[in-house]
Amino acid sequence: MAPAKTNAKKSTPDSQTSDHSHQSSFLREHAEQQFAHELEELATVDSRQRPPSWKLSPWAVSIYLLGGRLENGFEVLPKYIGNRRLMEVAIATLATDRALLLYGVPGTAKSWVSEHLAAAISGDSTLLIQGTAGTSEEAIRYGWNYARLLAEGPSMDALVASPMMRAMADGKIARVEELTRIPSDVQDTLITVLSEKTLPIPELNAEVQATKGFNIIATANNRDRGVNELSSALKRRFNTVILPMPNTLDEEVKIVHQRVESLGRALELPAEVPALEEIQRVVTIFRELRNGVTIDGKTKLKSPTGTLSTAEAISVVNSGMALSAHFGDGALKASDLISGLVGAVIKDPVQDQVVWKEYLETVVKERDGWKDLYRASREIG
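Given the sequence above, the corresponding structure tokens read:
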């Protein structure tokens, strides 16, 4: 039992720091663990008014999310690089009784923003309901310990609280990922929670009333095939913030570089952090294929069927780093990148294959300094 006790201690937010020398045994830490030191520093200097049950004021939450230098000189790293006003609207929404819906194409950091908002506001980002086609009402409301239910009958002790119920009772933020993946009749379970701020338990003739500080952050993407549209009754109860793709090449390169550096440390990859030039090539390819035109605007291109999001660019560079670390000299090269690039672009083996071949011949082959990418692509066929 001793090892279990050690792990439990490690997982507490208070025992974590965001110091680069800190190494965790966990593959992925929760935001409140990874950035505990930043949250502590912000709480120390934060003298502004906090909404009920909030760990930080809305001002401090925005600094945590967008980055900045505190009065004591402490530097807070940005978690979201993009439109400041969008984040301010999202934070202000959560300070009211309106729920927040983060909406946009895949890979626009909806889940990332959701997690960090919950970590900064509640100090707990783990009250999560993952939406899938198989998500049931019990996942949102509550379930039962059937052994106790059969032995003792319906009681609060036999009830298994959902993350939503725990968030309501504790005055915290509940997160619902991929809301439009959840069947429509199950989605509407949220209507009573959002409008009445209560969760009825008819079997016990009881209810759980929301404590101050409770709110919901939901995410949904508009490219998901087979989505279940939100009912108008549910839409009205959310304030929707649409997260766009990064506006500029430099902004997207900065996001990818920052996340790749962070992931490389977390995974303890024995590879150099790739030069900005390499990341810029990947992001340029993604942006050109996404927009259907080259950066200089001179050549029109066909776009592939996939989204080619910033999250996929991060994945391509990260897998390239792993290849260079374990099967190369630790320095990212075109041969390390190309398989990830091809996998990201070619989702449809017929249509996207044509798009990629045309891009290789008309853009990559002719561009100065990109011959290594062209050769590497030809080599893997």
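The chain is about 45% helix and 10% strand. Try to locate this feature in the token string yourself.
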